[in-house]
Write a structure and sequence with these properties.
Elements (H helix, E strand, L loop, with lengths): L5 E8 L2 E7 L14 H8 L9 E6 L6 E7 L9 H13 L6 E6 L2 E7 L4 E6 L21 E6 L3 E6 L9 H9 L10 E9 L2 E8 L4 E3 L3 H15 L5 E5 L2 E7 L6 E6 L1 E8 L1 H6 L6
Parallel strand pairs: 2-3, 4-5, 9-10, 11-13
Antiparallel strand pairs: 1-2, 1-16, 3-4, 5-6, 6-7, 7-15, 8-9, 10-11, 11-12, 13-14, 14-15
């Protein structure tokens, strides 16, 4: 194996953090193999690697500004990541790949985004989908979680209204319970615990599938929460989502055909991956 360093960028969107690699075939960069799940898992490990909620690869595309591959921290592909895509758009803009407005592809799905002022990126989301067989979730409700709903905003999400203060909620315990519940097999589900702060404003904590833990924010989850509030509580656009790591704003039309996710992005640091190190050093199982 060639021990050629691979350049990477560490970014976060409202605390949702990612390792992003410029994987264009321009001869300036060592190419990264996205099929190596073990290597991705080791890079995302917060003790033995760089540490991240996921890893992304930016590469060329003939029909758009760039192509984006997203991998969860477990090393396997994730269908979509809203905050990750916003971070990738920001980095692509900094690298000169795109202007302020861009079009890109994530696993064959088309997206559009715009870099705004004050390090904000607005991402146009695809319309959500719903499942009739997963709409009757009353059997999962109780005094602690009086209502909930399932929808797919690029990845499957469960929005759970909490009767408890979110600060005291054991998100890892209850998140894992719902994430692996037979009702949501075989793919599982991301779990968003919500408490309305005021009209058009939600407090949210999220347990992410593929990370298998709480993350500080989730873009597709924030969109799911906003749409749920619009459907169940007749909230109007826009909806402000207060995540642990920052604020996300979701704007939408009445039919949910035009949905925009806006929030902050930031570059944390840049560096080089020594691929040989990650191959030679195992990660302790969590």
């Amino acid at each position: 194996m060639k021990n050629q360093p691979i350049r990477f960028h560490k970014l976060h969107g409202a605390g949702n953090d990612f390792v992003i690699i410029d994987n264009r075939s321009d001869g300036k960069h060592a190419r990264f193999d996205g099929k190596n799940a073990v290597l991705i898992r080791r890079i995302c490990d917060r003790h033995f690697g760089v540490g991240a909620d996921g890893l992304m690869l930016i590469s060329e595309d003939t029909d758009s500004d760039f192509q984006l591959e997203y991998y969860n921290a477990d090393g396997f592909p994730g269908e979509m990541c809203g905050n990750g895509a916003r971070c990738a758009v920001w980095l692509a803009h900094l690298l000169g790949v795109t202007g302020r407005q861009c079009k890109f592809i994530v696993w064959g799905e088309n997206y559009e985004a715009e870099v705004l002022e004050n390090q904000q990126v607005r991402l146009k989301m695809n319309p959500p989908t719903f499942s009739a067989e997963r709409q009757n979730l009353q059997s999962l409700c109780d005094n602690r979680f009086p209502e909930m709903g399932w929808l797919n905003t690029g990845v499957p999400h469960l929005v759970v209204k909490s009767a408890e203060n979110l600060a005291a909620l054991d998100v890892r315990k209850f998140g894992a319970y719902f994430r692996y519940h037979p009702k949501f097999e075989p793919e599982g589900v991301n779990v968003n615990f919500v408490v309305p702060e005021s009209e058009h404003q939600l407090n949210v904590r999220v347990y992410e599938r593929g990370v298998e833990n709480e993350t500080l924010a989730c873009g597709t989850g924030a969109v799911a929460c906003a749409i749920y509030a619009a459907q169940q509580w007749q909230w109007q656009s826009p909806v402000r989502v207060n995540a642990v790591g920052g604020v996300l704003q979701i704007a939408f039309d009445p039919d949910f055909q035009q949905i925009y996710l806006t929030g902050p992005v930031a570059t944390v640091f840049e560096g080089e991956l020594n691929e040989l190190y990650f191959h030679n050093n195992a990660v302790v199982n969590k």
